[in-house]
User: Fold this.
Amino acid sequence: MQELADLVIVNASVHTMDPAKPDRMSDALAIRDGRILALGSTDTARAVGPGTVVVDAAGGALIPAINDAHLHFVSAAMAAFGYVRLDPSIAPDWAAVVDIINRAPAGEDGWVRAHGWDEVLLGPASGHLLDCRPGTPVVAFDRTGHQLLANSEALRRAGITAVTADIDGGTVVRAGDGSPTGLLQDGAMQLVSKMMPPVPNATLRPALLQLQEQLHSLGITSLTDPGLGPASAGLMDGAGSTAALELLGDLAADGELTLRINVLMLFAGTGGADAKAIDEGLRSGLANTYVNRGIDPEQLRIAGVKIFADGIPRSGTAWMSEPYGNACTHGHLVIQGADDAQRVAELHRILRLINDAGLQAGLHATGDAATSAAVEAIVAAADGTAEAGSKVAGNRHYIIHGAFTDTETLATMASHHIGYSTNPLIREEAGDMMRQVLGEERFSRHQPLHSALEAGVHFNLASDAPVTSPDWRRTVAAAVRRATRSTPSNPGDPERITGLQALAAMTIGAAWQDHAEHFKGALIPGMAADLCLLSNPWPDDEEIEKLLDAEVRLTLSGGRIVHQSNS
Assistant:
């Protein structure tokens, strides 16, 4: 007996993203009980019954729903809906930033919290907020998640003075007399963040639900939040606490969570990770937060642990094999240790702990030396045995950002099933500064997307929101064009990829990272009905910017309509 569909979409340009047949297209799709029932106008016509809802796509592209494999959901929610906004469109210069801060009301706890300033656009940040709002503590987080500005009152409450020492993997930026300017970088951010009052659930819960709605309106149904847990004070804005992790569980248990979310736990911040902290975190039982609560792991699960191996080039904290920047530094790992050898050895101990726990490791590594060391640590966690090697492949450890990855390292990643998650829109928006820091020749090799594809690496593209916009259409265009704000696309750039290759990286490629390619990421019968209907056909690469004008007409998560446009 022919099964009848709950919903059928006809007259569509269906990009199935079928891994077995990458170019497979269709013109219609049927859904039943949250799964894809059939493809093609002939088979779907047989599935139409009296209760079937029929949607006319009018030739629009029907694609798998987007899976943003690196999106700080909690921090992005607060940045968009919980903090004073300092976006460049609102605050185009430091004078405007100061004016907004001076006029902003303090929260119930007496603090002014802001987010979004961008040093690339505004220029050097030191000192600008130091004298703002005497007596009222002020903290402003930048877009990268690697810097914050504090005023004198916030510094006073945190006990930061001229004699405060820098900490592993972090810098207290100082004036000529040694006094702090208010700019804290990487691991030093936690000197302020850890003593701030926590964000109350009454503020965070509605912000999460508002961002969930916004992401669905963009066609996004899945994401990885890379770093929630006890070390949240050392990451982004510090909002991704253990309490926030538990709040996600409450939303899932209450049926309010319609995003599919994978979580990486954070037991050490942007600097100073060591095996002791990771071991204690793994023994804490945090990984079982969602167990025995009736929560579907396809909806919400704890996937693994995030580790910061190094920082970022603009702060001079990326570990590179050749010197870079005005300081002519190599940088180094931000893992604890007195020298490079000790830090690398500690990284190996950390990876072995995570691997033996059966969890996934997501390693932030931007410099080529850091990426190589991280890959070697993942491989070493296999302990040289066939059985252990299979376990490493099964855990699907991956490199986050991997801005500089040479051919040999890519080959190792492919052969050991080590994933790669990177961010083309960051390259576009911060590329001009990185070009100055790194030089043209080295910058040209930044984010080797085509090389990763050719090497057979499991890779995906992600936003890193709130560092950049979560609008995946901009990420796809950035991967195709590889332009920067001041430099147009170079048609001869060997690391460009096609729009459909970028789409695959944000759907079936991201599903691989989630251990979920068996149920999401492609539009083929039996898979979850996670999909996105665009108003227009998918554009050719020569006109990829047309994608930015394509409206998301419909978003389904597990067959459930989570967004539908009115037009």
Remarks:
- The longest helix spans residues 201-217.
- DSSP finds 19 helices and 24 strands in the chain.
